From TrEMBL:
<keyword id="KW-0805">Transcription regulation</keyword>
<protein>
    <recommendedName>
        <fullName>RNA polymerase subunit sigma-70</fullName>
    </recommendedName>
</protein>
<dbReference type="InterPro" id="IPR053721">
    <property type="entry name" value="Fimbrial_Adhesin_Reg"/>
</dbReference>
<keyword id="KW-0804">Transcription</keyword>
Amino acid sequence: MSIYSLRDLPQATRQAVRLRIVNGYTYEWAELETGVTRKRIALAVDKLERAHEQIKTVYGL
């Protein structure tokens, strides 16, 4: 997540994404824990997954 600035991915959204990806929380539970909407969490996860795929493509992984 450090490839995005705090303006693009605020701290609360980062925490929600960590809860979703690392800890296995559902979008609903991550929303309740952080106050970030499910839609915003899903958009951030999609954004990170797209960046991950691009990085893998560039480095041939």
